[in-house]
Design brief:
Elements (H helix, E strand, L loop, with lengths): L1 H17 L8 E7 L1 E2 L3 E4 L2 E3 L1 H12 L3 E7 L1 H9 L5 E5 L3 H6 E2 L6 E2 L2 E6 L16 E5 L6 H4 L5 E5 L2 H9 L5 E5 H10 L7 E8 L2 E7 L5 H18 L1 H8 L33
Helix pairs in contact: 2-8, 2-9
Pfam family, one: SBP_bac_3
Protein name: Solute-binding protein family 3/N-terminal domain-containing protein
Family: Belongs to the bacterial solute-binding protein 3 family.
Length: 279
């Protein structure tokens, strides 16, 4: 009888003993994109930006200490995919991302991905088939929505940074560049020589941006749960909206009266257009 009780105790306790430990003092490493300001970037030796503030606040709200570690986006996602990082942001998920990573219920924010052309050669693009045979600058590792990403006849010119795409467009080395509205606004403010040179000719996608969690890191599932809990707390007490308003960005689209146009739109729980495998 005693032996049977001992075996039963071992059956119950062994999974708990083998589970990854989580303590209040532990600091978890989260990968952050290093060059996507004003959302996330390494500036003055620190990861800064709107989504960086949201991630820090969400984990703080769930009493979880994190360190945001900057990486180029493609490197950040690969380290997360293989389990060397617990998570990485910012991601615009598609079916492949959803199958390779754990995705939380709570997105960070939403913004438009625009197709930009030179101001002196801009024509509206009403059908993506108009891009057949044309060169379009895209950032390495970025997702631009299934309609664009699945185009077979477009010539994608990969660049390290959105800034490089606009510079290539300025020198007519590509016909278009794809970039988020908020990123373009920040670049035009930081690099005045770019302002007024470009106009958007199509909206490629309006994705929700997420933190992607690893399927192979031992603490990723725990951190995903804490992130979702923290984000819900931010929405409940108004801190989410306070962070968004602190980073309020003007629309990058030129206008005749130079007025401030539509800002970045925020979002609540995702309406996911991709099949979501179980986390």
């Amino acid at each position: 009888m005693a032996a049977r009780c001992l075996r039963l105790c071992l059956v119950i306790l062994l999974p708990l003993l083998c589970a990854p430990a989580a303590t209040a003092d532990e600091v978890y490493r989260i990968g952050a994109e290093d060059d996507w300001y004003p959302f996330t970037a390494l500036r003055e030796g620190k990861v800064q930006g709107m989504s960086a503030d949201l991630v820090r606040a969400a984990f703080a709200a769930s009493n979880t200490r994190v360190e945001l570690v900057p990486y180029p986006y493609s490197r950040c996602m690969e380290l997360t995919r293989t389990g060397r990082l617990a998570a990485c942001f910012n991601t615009s998920p598609d079916a492949d991302i959803a199958s390779e990573f754990r995705l939380p219920q709570e997105p960070l924010f939403s913004d438009d991905i625009l197709l930009w052309a030179r101001h002196d050669n801009a024509r509206p693009v009403t059908d993506l088939q108009q891009l057949a045979g044309r060169k379009v600058a895209v950032t390495i590792g970025y997702e631009y929505g299934t309609p664009f990403d699945s185009l077979a006849d477009v010539e994608r010119v990969e660049v390290r940074r959105d800034l490089n795409g606009f510079r290539m467009l300025a020198h007519q080395r590509v016909a278009y560049t794809a970039a988020y509205r908020g990123i373009a606004a920040a670049l035009f403010a930081e690099y005045p020589e770019l302002a007024g040179q470009f106009v958007p000719v199509a909206t490629l996608h309006r994705p929700q941006l997420f933190v992607s969690f690893s399927r192979h890191h031992p603490q990723a599932e725990l951190l995903l749960s804490r992130f979702d809990s923290g984000m819900r707390a931010l929405h409940r007490d108004g801190r989410y909206q306070q962070i968004i308003e602190r980073w309020h960005l003007p629309d990058a689209t030129p206008s005749g009266d130079a007025s401030t146009l539509r800002p970045i739109l925020t979002t609540t729980r995702a309406q996911r257009p991709w099949p979501t495998p179980p986390n």
